[in-house]
Backbone:
């Protein structure tokens, strides 16, 4: 096999569910991103069901038009899964039983206290002449199947099985074949709209021809993806981005929270750890989402001590000491109650910082004065507190997610300020 | 052209951006849904860039394997858009200039106060022998291009242009050709592995030829998608599923939590509401995810009163009254502490039911006796309590999501039992 910039690459996603209106292939996006990093681009993507005839047609087509063919999915134990069988017969190769694979599958079941059902037997068969790609997160092994100068790479469909298998067994081979260098940066921002960013960045255009900038907008988060290409060296590609990075940083400042791919909760967590500050949260309309995001970060127990989901009015009294007459006078969704919740959780938990959210996630519960999407985020620290009022658009899910995002960002900006002040007081 | 159940249908999405890691074709989902309604299924989806060679290969392949071929995108005025030109040359047909199309494009620009740029000229060329599909929301017309017994249907890429064109000019032809009716059901299950389900369902195979069953596995959730076809009537298709539905219900029983598309938190919420029971939760390793899922359901404030994210050991004492010596003796991740957390949150909140989760989400914190993935789920109600021990596989995110899923399911099964007992005590 010779891999290169001119190899034609095809990704075939197999699964009848991918031909319904309900599911999309996402595995190919992941593989595309990784191959792009070594300067390889995808030529074709094909989606086909678990149907012998259609699969046969697709495999034959890919053999004619492509050099490197990823085939993802249809390796499961059930009757409809037939990728392995159809590919073997298309290539005119036999399926061979491998005792060592069966042992691993059996072990996997035993570790969970189950006996392996007999249907899983078929997953222990591989296509002759292929290399086994170990599956550490599922039962179906992958296969690397050379065919003349071409190669088929068979991977399991579940992303949590596919990705580690790709990283461990497939990626190193592509990395070794690299003929092309790519530098990439992702700047994640929050607090600005897409058009505001466009305006702030107007001076950086036109970009050099070997650099590409793509803007991706999510609710509460806008990402700037920069890619530079060089045929000479990684350093060359990287250098092209350096100047542009500085320009971006100057234009967007603290609105950029990450240039390394980190999520907002990871960035905020790191700031908390460095400041040796602990955090407790009080959530109303987000119902636990804020705590969930904070605790998605491994090691978050170092700075996150506790939270409460104070959903009912009574629980705001009981868990946070929010005065009943304050709720009565101002309403549960108000600047005053948000502040009282942040103060309450901080005092009761003994944490350094208290962070609170109260709002109307909808679809009901809104009024002309307090519409659906009205959300107050409160922050309380030693010697101060602050509350931000927000109006978020979208459905319940979007309002919850933008609220949690805003709370994390409010905390992040507070910690940045705190850091600067400390540096002023104690210059090193 | 003869359309029918056996027509092979292919959707080709054209656009180099669809071969990057950032964009997905969504037009095909829309077309799939509409065609499914008249009993037609998609056989192949192809994604290809705006590249002459690759486009030619795709069009030739589709002519060989498919009867009805949708080609979407690449009809714009810019240089990279070449779908129209490449398809004409693949089919050996000429491009013909149409004065009336040019007039419409010019008018469109004039209405907005602009003069038509000369690049738009090329959009006034159609493939000879084709029917024009009017574009009321953009400049590029669509084309209906017969080729022997087959047909190519050319549509613009922007969804707000594609959808109305499909509805006005394409859908009526398919509706008229309807030879066919479809019924559909989705059964969602939890508590069983994919292979266990396969084993339990072995008696229902072989299925009638006009019925198709697809299994989709997610961590902690397995879905069975059933589709039945009839050439006679919608009722006939529905009747075919009735018997199968009963069989599935018999084989899988309470492991099926929904046959209407509802999520587990919606089903559980409904059971709580009907039983007039309120709920409070105590989360350790899930950090708020359980409360987040419960409060994703509109109106959940009716039965969900509060929760605590008792992440640190101290907070388990402070917020839930878990005895310090119990944590010391058994460890924070133990059957005893899970029980004490469920009892604690129930008592302190005054809710009818307390639900707790404590476990090791990883990646660190595991030991040979208590590995990463060990999770206890506790439930406490009037007159009883219960704790389930689980070992979940996967990364931190997967362990958290399976834990929340398990807790919701434990609550669901409890409420089902409670419902049955009440029905026994108070037969209606």
Residues:
């Amino acid at each position: 096999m010779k891999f290169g910039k001119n190899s034609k690459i095809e990704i075939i996603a197999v699964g009848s569910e991918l031909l319904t209106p309900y599911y999309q292939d996402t595995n190919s996006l992941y593989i595309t991103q990784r191959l792009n990093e070594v300067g390889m681009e995808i030529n074709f993507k094909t989606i086909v069901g678990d149907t012998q005839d259609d699969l046969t047609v697709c495999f034959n087509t890919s053999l004619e038009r492509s050099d490197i063919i990823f085939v993802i999915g249809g390796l499961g134990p059930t009757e409809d899964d037939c990728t392995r069988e159809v590919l073997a017969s298309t290539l005119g190769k036999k399926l061979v039983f491998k005792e060592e694979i069966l042992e691993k599958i059996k072990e996997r079941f035993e570790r969970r206290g189950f006996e392996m059902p007999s249907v899983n037997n078929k997953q222990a068969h591989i296509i002759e002449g292929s290399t086994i790609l170990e599956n550490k997160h599922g039962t179906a092994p992958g296969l690397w199947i050379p065919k003349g100068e071409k190669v088929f790479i068979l991977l399991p469909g579940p992303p949590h099985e596919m990705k580690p298998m790709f990283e461990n067994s497939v990626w190193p081979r592509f990395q070794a074949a690299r003929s092309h260098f790519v530098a990439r940066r992702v700047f994640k921002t929050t607090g600005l709209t897409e058009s505001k960013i466009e305006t702030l960045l107007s001076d950086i255009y036109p970009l050099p021809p070997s650099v590409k900038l793509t803007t991706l907008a999510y609710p509460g988060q806008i990402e700037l993806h920069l890619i530079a290409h060089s045929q000479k060296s990684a350093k060359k590609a990287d250098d092209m981005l350096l100047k542009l990075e500085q320009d971006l940083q100057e234009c967007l400042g603290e609105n950029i929270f990450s240039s390394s791919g980190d999520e907002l909760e990871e960035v905020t967590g790191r700031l908390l750890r460095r400041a040796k500050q602990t955090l407790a949260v009080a959530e109303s309309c987000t119902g636990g989402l804020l705590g969930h995001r904070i605790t998605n970060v491994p090691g978050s127990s170092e700075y996150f001590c506790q939270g409460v989901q104070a959903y009912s009015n009574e629980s705001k009294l009981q868990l946070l000491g929010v005065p009943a007459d304050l709720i009565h006078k101002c309403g549960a969704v108000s600047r005053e109650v948000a502040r009282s919740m942040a103060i309450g959780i901080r005092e009761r938990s003994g944490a350094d910082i208290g962070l609170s959210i109260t709002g109307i996630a909808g679809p009901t519960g809104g009024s002309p004065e307090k519409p659906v999407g009205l959300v107050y985020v409160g922050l309380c620290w030693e010697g101060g507190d602050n509350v931000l009022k927000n109006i978020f658009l979208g459905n319940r899910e979007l309002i919850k997610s933008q609220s949690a995002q805003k709370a994390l960002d409010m905390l992040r900006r507070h910690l940045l300020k705190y850091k600067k002040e400390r540096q002023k007081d104690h210059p090193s």
Remarks:
- The mean pLDDT of chain A is 93.
